């Protein structure tokens, strides 16, 4: 059998050799020999050679200070290049059938139109599909933006080299460019000098759209249209937008003191500015293309004597876009320019209507082929991105809104809102929502924190509705949490009904979510406000941190089922917003599989999902990759709507409930009740050191003085992925499966794994995590960094890991993990010899930095590089 991974390995080997040549030129032959020796010893150590491991450790611990950072950088950059090669392999001409599955939309249309669903129902669902991908900047994207751009250029080179018609000279030119790029990458500092600001994060999000999604959206829709037209004879509408994009970058102020109303205002202007620039570029190109003279009566009526009627319209549009860019530049610089509304682009219709006029004219005059070129691309970009590029969500903690109203009621002599019962709060809020007089006195001087919340509400009120997505309330648990926001927005002069979205994130909150929404929808005033649509956000990160992945997953599933019933009964459509992270411990994993494993009825043609941190780059960083990801999302939501999964059997529910109860006890028994757990965690992982890395704009903790409970879910998981134990993504699950097997439930578990998408996905995710866990490396961290009196806990944790792996293998009937996903297994295998040395070096550097009061700059830099390298190797780290 042919080696299907040979092209991938060839690209990895070629780029590794170029990186080696670059290092040789910069640091000499002896350094390169040492790097290669350690790499070979790491491979031998993987195969169980103890003497190779000892030699490798001796070489690592003997590295002089001046070689620490270059060594970490060498392995780090090799892993980044391996990521690029792997990313490229999935869109390569040489991609194999194990990796590049057939087009998901093509497959789905075959199944749907094969008799199960009629074409009209499919077309109607497709036309109204509403998939909202919410880009969030979380501190998991290690790579700097300048490096990400160079990585994209490397992919372009790999793509060119696949062209069989390249001449020898052209091949040499591409190789020269590839060598130059890898040298640039090597000589660029990977670690940011300073922590990014929220505005920096927002600009990073915009760069993904500019470099990839701007092209991918019309490409995807053209491919989708062709497939639908082939099977139904119907063309998709020009304004179809099954996938749209929102953002939390610059709007998420939950626990981030650096996101202020001023910052959010700047980000909104920058989003609009980026869109205007991209539309201007498109319109300039369109002016060159649409040189035709023949036009319909509607277009000619604008200027009967025109010889270039299309260009006349486009030139006016071009000038308005230039004016818009000038206006927004002035705003970003802090000025408040005055402009006449009709001289700039103020709303989507200002671009859409003139372009649709041109489209109709071309079609009427027999030039549909021309109309369906760049002009249609621009119309479809407009349907997806609008003039604001990304709809910005606002997120704030429920407690902050409570503080505002409590401070106000105390000032007004009405008592302390914070101490009122829930029914009293609701009565007060509903009374004030119906009252026409202002509640907030002009003379009131609130505290700084309260003033900031009010400034944000006033900013929301001042924005056009299309610029904003939802107002998300984190740690929501009562109807008053939603009503409080609505009152503050009303008092700030908000004239349109923004979606106010409670986020249920702890286990208790998930269990109470349906009763909270039921209570809200029982309020006549509120049900009228919703206009028939209720959005609810399901938290994956904090629920898993609170209860472990198995119990959290079941609570999320049950909450969704109950919310569907509550909303159906109230005659309100439910839109579920899934707050997933990149890693399995935060609800991550393949999006297609995740959507199809949701409860029946919960994906009814619409869904919102967060795309976080480095996963944005892995899914959408290249136009062809982005087209694949868009196809996966569209086909999954279409399938979940038209061919929903079956209701789980009662026996499955009861078994899953027992698994959840057993797993939460096992999880909390360690994380909450084991007195040695926190000291072990802080010693055995680089949790403390991670807080010093300039990764994201948000602090690692909600409270500086807090413990594990205040630690954010991302650094919590990031830390455990660094020492390779991956604990948050499996703790509790294996123990529950083992207990079920001991009860004699194995035949039932096997049936659930085979026939229930929810359970199958859960087990598949566990397999992936277990395959990435490295108990021997975690044990080495323990030996070097953890006080001996805590070693017993480490041994217990590794025993729990082994027990879980054994339970999953018994359930799947496999001899090895991920036997049914060889591509994922090969991906892990390819990286290990490069991640392992970074782990061993990281352990050495952590030991050094913890002994010294002020570690040297080379040691600190090298430590940061090992953290970046391990994250690159593990990929979905947060």
From TrEMBL:
<comment type="subunit">
    <text>Homotetramer.</text>
</comment>
<dbReference type="InterPro" id="IPR015813">
    <property type="entry name" value="Pyrv/PenolPyrv_kinase-like_dom"/>
</dbReference>
<comment type="function">
    <text>Forms oxaloacetate, a four-carbon dicarboxylic acid source for the tricarboxylic acid cycle.</text>
</comment>
<keyword id="KW-0460">Magnesium</keyword>
<protein>
    <recommendedName>
        <fullName>Phosphoenolpyruvate carboxylase</fullName>
        <ecNumber>4.1.1.31</ecNumber>
    </recommendedName>
</protein>
<dbReference type="InterPro" id="IPR022805">
    <property type="entry name" value="PEP_COase_bac/pln-type"/>
</dbReference>
<dbReference type="InterPro" id="IPR018129">
    <property type="entry name" value="PEP_COase_Lys_AS"/>
</dbReference>
<feature type="active site">
    <location>
        <position position="545"/>
    </location>
</feature>
<comment type="similarity">
    <text>Belongs to the PEPCase type 1 family.</text>
</comment>
<keyword id="KW-0120">Carbon dioxide fixation</keyword>
<keyword id="KW-0456">Lyase</keyword>
<dbReference type="InterPro" id="IPR033129">
    <property type="entry name" value="PEPCASE_His_AS"/>
</dbReference>
<dbReference type="Pfam" id="PF00311">
    <property type="entry name" value="PEPcase"/>
</dbReference>
<dbReference type="InterPro" id="IPR021135">
    <property type="entry name" value="PEP_COase"/>
</dbReference>
<dbReference type="GO" id="GO:0008964">
    <property type="term" value="F:phosphoenolpyruvate carboxylase activity"/>
</dbReference>
<feature type="active site">
    <location>
        <position position="138"/>
    </location>
</feature>
């Amino acid at each position: 059998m042919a080696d299907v991974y040979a092209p991938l390995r060839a690209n990895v080997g070629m780029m590794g050799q170029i990186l080696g040549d670059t290092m040789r030129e910069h640091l000499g032959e002896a350094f390169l020999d040492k790097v290669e020796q350690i790499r070979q010893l790491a491979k031998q150590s993987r195969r169980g050679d103890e003497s190779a491991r000892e030699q490798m450790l001796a070489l690592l611990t003997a590295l002089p200070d001046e070689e620490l950072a270059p060594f970490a950088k060498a392995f780090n950059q090799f892993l980044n290049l391996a990521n690029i090669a792997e990313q490229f392999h999935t869109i390569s001409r040489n991609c194999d059938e194990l990796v590049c599955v057939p087009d998901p939309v093509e497959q789905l249309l075959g199944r749907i139109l094969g008799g199960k669903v009629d074409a009209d129902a499919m077309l109607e669902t497709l036309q109204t599909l509403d998939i909202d991908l919410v880009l969030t900047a979380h501190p998991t994207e290690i790579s700097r933006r300048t490096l990400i751009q160079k990585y994209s250029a490397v992919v372009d080179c790999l793509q060119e080299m696949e062209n069989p018609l390249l001449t020898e000279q052209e091949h040499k030119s591409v190789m020269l460019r590839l060598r130059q790029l890898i040298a640039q990458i090597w000589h660029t500092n990977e670690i940011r000098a300073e922590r990014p600001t929220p505005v920096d994060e927002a600009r990073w999000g915009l760069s993904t759209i500019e470099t990839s999604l701007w092209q991918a959206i019309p490409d995807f829709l053209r491919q989708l249209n062709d497939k639908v037209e082939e099977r139904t004879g119907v063309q998709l509408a020009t304004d179809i937008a099954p996938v749209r994009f929102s953002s939390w970058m610059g709007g998420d102020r939950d626990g981030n003191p650096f996101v202020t109303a001023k910052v959010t205002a700047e980000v909104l202007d920058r989003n609009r500015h980026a869109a205007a620039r991209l539309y201007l570029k498109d319109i300039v190109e369109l002016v060159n293309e649409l040189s035709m003279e023949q036009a319909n009566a509607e277009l000619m009526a604008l200027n009967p004597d025109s010889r270039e009627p299309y260009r006349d319209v486009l030139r006016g549009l071009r000038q308005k876009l230039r004016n818009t860019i000038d206006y927004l530049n002035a705003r970003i610089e802090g000025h408040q320019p005055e402009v006449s509304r009709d001289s700039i682009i103020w709303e989507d219709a200002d671009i859409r209507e003139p372009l649709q006029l041109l489209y109709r004219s071309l079609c009427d005059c027999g030039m549909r082929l021309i109309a369906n070129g760049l002009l249609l691309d621009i119309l479809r970009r407009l349907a997806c991105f609008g003039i604001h590029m990304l709809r910005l969500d606002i997120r704030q903690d429920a407690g902050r809104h409570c503080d505002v109203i409590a401070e106000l009621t105390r000032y007004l002599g009405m008592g302390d809102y914070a101490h009122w019962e829930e029914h009293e709060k609701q009565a007060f809020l509903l009374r004030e929502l119906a009252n026409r007089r202002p509640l907030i006195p002009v003379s009131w001087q609130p505290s700084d924190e309260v003033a900031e919340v009010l400034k944000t509400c006033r900013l929301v009120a001042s924005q056009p509705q299309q610029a904003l997505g939802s107002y998300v309330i984190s740690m929501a648990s009562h109807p008053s949490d939603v009503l409080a926001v609505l009152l503050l927005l009303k008092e700030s002069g908000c004239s349109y009904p923004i979606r106010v979205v409670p986020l249920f994130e702890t286990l208790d909150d998930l269990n109470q979510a349906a009763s909270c929404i039921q209570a809200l929808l029982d309020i006549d005033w509120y049900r009228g406000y919703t206009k028939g649509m209720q959005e609810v956000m399901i938290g994956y990160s904090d629920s898993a941190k609170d209860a472990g992945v198995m119990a959290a997953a079941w609570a999320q599933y049950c909450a969704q089922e109950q919310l569907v019933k509550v909303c159906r009964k109230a005659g309100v459509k439910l839109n579920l917003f899934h707050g997933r992270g990149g890693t399995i411990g935060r609800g991550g994993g393949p999006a297609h599989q995740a959507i199809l494993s949701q409860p029946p009825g919960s994906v009814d043609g619409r869904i919102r999902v967060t795309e976080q941190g480095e996963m944005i780059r892995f899914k959408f960083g290249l136009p062809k990759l982005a087209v694949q990801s868009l196809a996966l999302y569209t086909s999954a939501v279409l399938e979940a709507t038209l061919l929903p999964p079956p209701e789980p059997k009662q026996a499955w529910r009861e078994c899953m409930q027992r698994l959840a109860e057993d797993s939460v006890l096992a999880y909390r028994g360690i994380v909450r009740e084991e007195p040695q757990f926190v000291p072990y965690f802080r010693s055995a992982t680089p949790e403390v050191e991670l807080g010093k890395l300039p990764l994201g704009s948000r602090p690692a903790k909600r409270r500086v003085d807090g413990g594990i409970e205040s630690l954010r879910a991302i650094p919590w998981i990031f830390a455990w992925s660094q020492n390779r134990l991956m604990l948050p993504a499996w703790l509790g699950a294996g123990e529950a499966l083992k207990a079920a097997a001991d009860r004699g439930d194995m035949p039932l578990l096997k049936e659930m794994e085979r026939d229930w998408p929810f359970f199958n996905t859960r087990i598949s995710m566990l397999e992936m995590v277990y395959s990435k866990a490295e108990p021997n490396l975690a044990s080495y961290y323990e030996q070097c960094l953890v006080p001996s009196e805590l070693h017993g806990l480490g041994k217990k944790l590794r025993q729990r890991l082994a027990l879980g792996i054994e339970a999953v293998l018994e359930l799947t009937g496999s001899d090895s993990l991920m036997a049914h996903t060889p591509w994922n297994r090969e991906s892990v295998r390819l990286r290990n010899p490069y991640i392992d040395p970074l782990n061993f070096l990281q352990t050495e550097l952590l030991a050094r930095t913890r002994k010294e009061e002020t570690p040297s700059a080379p040691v600190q830099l090298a430590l940061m590089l090992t953290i970046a390298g391990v994250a690159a190797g593990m990929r979905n780290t947060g």
